[in-house]
Design a protein that fits this description.
Layout: H1 8-14, H2 24-34, H3 47-56, H4 58-76, H5 82-116, E1 121-126, E2 129-134, E3 143-147, E4 155-167, H6 169-172, E5 177-179, E6 195-196, E7 201-213, H7 219-227, H8 236-265, H9 270-284, H10 289-306, E8 309-311, H11 314-321, E9 325-328, E10 340-345, H12 351-359, E11 364-366, E12 369-371, H13 374-384, E13 391-397, E14 405-412, E15 415-422, H14 424-427, E16 431-436, E17 439-442, H15 445-459, E18 464-473, E19 486-495, H16 502-511, E20 515-519, H17 524-534, E21 542-545, H18 546-551, H19 554-560, E22 566-569, H20 573-585, E23 590-594, H21 600-605, E24 608-612, H22 618-623, E25 626-628, H23 633-659, H24 661-674, H25 682-692, H26 694-701, H27 724-752, H28 766-789, H29 797-800, H30 806-824, H31 826-832, H32 839-867
Parallel strand pairs: 9-20, 9-23, 16-19, 20-22, 21-22, 23-24, 24-25
Antiparallel strand pairs: 1-2, 1-3, 3-7, 4-5, 4-6, 4-7, 8-25, 10-19, 11-12, 13-14, 14-15, 15-18, 16-17, 18-19
Helix pairs in contact: 3-5, 4-5, 4-9, 5-10, 5-25, 8-9, 8-10, 9-24, 9-25, 10-23, 11-23, 12-13, 15-17, 16-23, 23-26, 23-27, 24-27, 25-28, 26-30, 27-28, 27-32, 28-30, 28-32, 30-31
The structure holds adenosine-5'-triphosphate.
Length: 879
């Protein structure tokens, strides 16, 4: 049976359905039989192969190699201590892999959770009544009602097409749109003009389809079967982290080699030197960086979702943080999309205006009021109270954002009428007549000017304007609906109050150095009035109309784009893309909002495409990077705040982790240069890098937005995560202060125990064990202070509050607990070569920790003074 070749009644009978749709019993039975309408990912990589990947990446391989060398050396020269190191390296590989695996798993869970927040719902006819259901509940035989902007939920045969146009790009990759018909077709499935496929998009018109395949039986399901589901994007930040890790690994290897050569020159013995070289490499390589960064991106996207911005890829989290320009539409984003008709102006009694408003309208009455687009439902409610007529609709040219009007052909009271409603700019030029003193007269220039004046006055009050017109026909048009020579029937002005949160969100944008430009399809005066109300406009507006925008030379438009108080009105989606492209060419990082089918290209083009979750079409949502669950402009600003924060947090924990590399390195240098007993052993380095440092670093990644984050200018586009400033602060400032503490602790114990230079000590002597433990304790004590300084590159800890990040306190508690285990238990002592310390050592280390905290506070103060209030926080060098 070829479903495409059947007549309508055969389609219904072959799928045991009817033009009234299925009934509830059918649906339940079929759902049990065919299962939910879902694409299962068959080839999801098995847990085992994913776990294996964590043992075989670049750094892991490096570590395997090091471990292998240790074992080989142990075999060739037993008793040099290399066996223990080899085992320790294996432990590192294991801990790292498990840790990364758990983080990857948590990241995936977080993303999966986010996906569930945006249900995919679709209109169906069941029991003869239109209802909206989850796409997952669609079963074969269901009668789906498709409208412009919908995503097709399952494969189906078209039984009614009202210029139903689909784009099969998501399935076939070809981007041409296809006009579908409901007539039978003899060709094969791929060529047919009467089938729709799951995952494709309705880009125009509407229609009804009977579902014949769901879930894995759909064409999309079959492909998913072959390709094994979705490929995850890698964000530039992740790529950069990988780059940083590799560079640092290369530096580490180079350092290791240097120390080896230096050791040889100073005659310290081959195996000793070899051991140290490996120690240095392990100390410097930031093993856990990439999974930690990925996890903190995922956590940020979860926080964004809590603030109503659903991020579709981790990529967007970071792109959001650098946005310096938002192009926003007005209706629904800046305003509440709660429309009511506030005024009607008509040249006669208004009856015809109401007739047009009622019947040239796709809103439908439903059990819970009126269903449909907010503009249309408002018109419907208003008009339905004033005219009581029946009408039969014979044809429709649906509203679209380019034409900015809608037309229908209706039979009303025996008269055949064309009804047109839309933007005055597109409807008035079609009007040739107007009612006057009981008759209908030609619409001359003077009358047109008068109408335009009325339009301006009403729009100037912030009303969204609708011009209404009609004409009578003798016979049904065979082709296009004739829209010329209309009789003007009136203007309706709709009120749509601004969202209360928008004004403060705009103030935040201003202080954060983010420019906001309104790009709306609405009229200039309406847009200007709303812009003034929400504080987007101060002074006289510069309004550029879509038409001007299309004809203006690019050079002039670029100049205009620099003006304050700029508003783009009556813009078509094409105009919008043009403006967005120019802004991007000018070097801006642009976020663009959109909700319609035609907005998809602008959403894709911009750095961050923002679609509306409530009012937007599926097409826009598919194209966007983030979806606003509440359609609210303020949510974009919250998302930017989180985006900026995550970048800063990642930098903060990198500073924290890198700082402890210096006190790990300096003991080696001192050992080689001055011949003192090695102050810190490799096992102790590992205790810091893979033990005590881990938890506070994670907590730094989850820091909530600092109070000044939206008072700083956007991050320059080219700015890297690791700048010279970040490295200088970590290595040459914080790191050196830490090294001071640990060497201080070491010498204090050594001297107290009667050691004198150049005396050597047995590795098992209590004095040596205690001295190295003091060195380790020095790192731990100063890292506790450091975690507070790393919470912000600019803000004083007094401003942030010592207790404001709970997770950080937990992290520190875990760090200290681990330190106690290492220093004060026999097991910890045995593994890490430590010995218990007396309180005097801690008392000695305390001032070093306070010194680090104080010194960084002074640095922050100096920075504040230097940068002054004019450029608050502008310091890309350090933060
Ligand atoms: P924004 O882009 O800020 O969301 P908008 O939603 O007002 O603006 P459009 O939806 O493109 O932009 O509407 C532009 C104009 O088209 C409106 O001012 C109105 O005059 C007209 N219009 C809007 N909806 C309809 C409709 N359903 N039927 C006919 N005309 C409409």
């Amino acid at each position: 049976m070829k479903i495409q070749a059947l007549a309508h009644d055969e389609v219904f009978s072959s799928l045991l359905s009817s033009p009234r749709g299925l009934d509830d019993g059918d649906v339940a039975r079929r759902l049990a039989e065919y299962g939910p309408n879902e694409i299962r990912q068959l080839h999801v990589r098995s847990m085992l192969s994913r776990l294996t990947a964590h043992f075989t990446h670049f750094l892991a391989l490096l570590l395997w190699f090091a471990a292998g060398l240790c074992f080989l050396s142990e075999y060739l020269h037993p008793g040099e201590g290399l066996l223990r190191l080899g085992v320790a390296i294996l432990a590192i590989i294991l801990i790292n892999a498990l840790f990364s695996f758990i983080q990857e798993y948590r990241t995936e869970k977080a993303i999966e959770e986010l996906r569930k927040l945006l249900p995919f719902r679709i209109a169906v006819l069941r029991n003869g009544v239109e209802t909206e259901v989850d796409a997952g509940e669609i079963v074969p035989g269901d009668l789906v009602l498709l409208r412009e902007g919908d995503k097709v939920p399952a494969d189906g045969r078209v039984v009614l097409s009202n210029r139903l146009t689909v784009n099969n790009a998501p399935l076939t990759g070809e981007s041409d749109s296809r006009l579908l018909s409901d007539a039978p077709w003899e060709g094969d499935v791929a060529e047919s003009h009467n089938l729709v496929f799951a995952g494709t998009l309705v880009v125009g018109g509407g229609g009804q389809v009977v579902v014949y395949a769901t879930g894995m039986a759909t064409e999309f399901g079959k492909i998913a079967h072959i390709t094994g589901g979705v490929v995850q994007e890698v964000s530039p930040l992740q790529v950069e982290i990988l780059r940083v890790t590799r560079i640092v690994a290369a530096i580490a290897v180079a350092c290791g080699a240097c120390f080896f050569v230096m050791g040889e020159l100073f005659g310290r013995g081959f195996w000793n030197n070899f051991l140290f070289a490996i120690g240095i490499i392990i100390a410097l390589v930031p093993e856990g960086l990439l999974p930690t960064v990925t996890l903190s991106l995922a956590m940020a996207s979860r926080r964004m979702a809590r603030r109503n911005a659903l991020v579709k890829s981790l990529n967007a989290v970071e792109a959001l943080g650098s946005v310096d320009m938002i192009c926003t539409d007005k209706t629904g984003t800046l305003t509440q999309n709660l429309m009511t008709v506030k005024s009607l102006w008509s040249p006669d009694d208004g009856a015809m205006a109401c007739t047009v408003a009622l019947f040239c309208n796709n809103a439908t009455p439903s059990s819970d009021g009126v269903r449909g687009d907010p503009t249309e439902t408002a018109l419907y409610r208003y008009a339905a109270e004033r005219v009581r007529l029946d009408a039969e609709r014979l044809d429709e040219a649906p509203f679209d954002a380019d034409r900015k009007r809608m037309a229908t052909v209706n039979r009303i009271d025996g008269r055949l009428l064309v009804l047109v409603k839309g933007a005055a700019e597109t409807v008035l030029p079609l009007c040739g007549r107007i009612p006057r003193e009981g008759g209908i007269v030609a619409l001359d220039c003077a009358l047109t000017t008068e109408l335009e004046g009325r339009h301006r006055a009403m729009a100037g009050q912030g009303l969204r304007m609708m011009a209404l017109a009609y004409r009578e026909l003798d016979q049904l048009p065979s082709q296009e609906i004739p829209e010329q020579g209309l009789v003007f029937a009136g203007f309706m002005g709709l009120e749509d109050p601004p969202r209360p949160e928008v004004a403060s969100a705009l103030r935040q944008c201003r202080s954060a150095g983010i420019r906001v430009i309104m790009i709306t399809g609405d009229a200039g005066p309406t847009a200007a009035a709303i812009a003034r109300e929400i504080g987007l406009l101060e002074g006289e507006p510069v309004i550029i109309q879509g038409k001007e925008c299309a004809t203006m030379p690019d050079s002039q438009l670029r100049r205009e784009l620099k003006q304050d108080n700029l508003i783009f009105a009556r813009m078509s989606p094409q105009n919008k893309i043009h403006v967005v492209s120019l802004l991007m060419e000018e070097g801006h990082r642009v976020a663009v909002t959109g909700d319609g089918v035609n907005d998809a290209s602008a959403l894709k083009k911009a750095h961050v495409g923002v679609a509306m979750g409530l009012s937007g079409t599926s097409v826009a949502r598919e194209a966007a990077d983030i979806v606003l669950l509440d359609d609210n402009f303020a949510s974009i600003v919250h998302a930017i705040e989180e985006g900026r924060t995550v970048f800063q947090n990642i930098r903060n924990f990198i500073t924290y982790i890198f700082a402890s590399n210096i006190p790990e390195l300096i003991p080696y240098i001192a050992y080689i240069l001055f011949g003192i007993p090695l102050p810190l052993t490799i096992m102790q380095i590992l205790a810091v890098d893979l033990g005590t440092d881990m938890f506070p670093a994670l907590a730094l990644g989850s820091e909530s937005p600092p109070p000044d984050i939206m008072r700083r200018p956007p991050r320059p586009k080219a700015e890297r995560l690791l700048t010279g400033g970040v490295l200088t602060r970590a290595y040459l400032f914080l790191g050196l202060l830490e090294a001071l503490a640990c060497m201080g602790g070491y010498f204090y114990v050594m001297q107290g125990g009667g050691w004198e230079w150049p005396q050597t000590l047995a590795p098992s002597s209590t004095l040596y064990l205690r001295a190295t433990t003091a060195c380790l304790a020095g790192i731990i004590a100063t890292q506790v202070a450091n975690v507070f300084t790393c919470r912000s590159p600019h803000l004083s800890i007094v401003t942030l509050g010592f207790l404001s990040n709970r997770l950080l306190l937990v992290g520190i508690a875990l760090e200290l607990a681990l330190a106690l285990l290492i220093i004060y238990t026999p097991g910890g002592n045995a593994i890490f070569g430590c010995a218990p310390l007396g309180p005097d050592v801690w008392l000695l280390l305390l001032p070093f920790a306070l010194l680090l905290l104080g010194a960084d506070e002074v640095r922050k103060l100096v920075h504040k003074r230097l940068s002054g209030s004019a450029s608050v926080g502008r310091d890309s060098a350090v933060g």
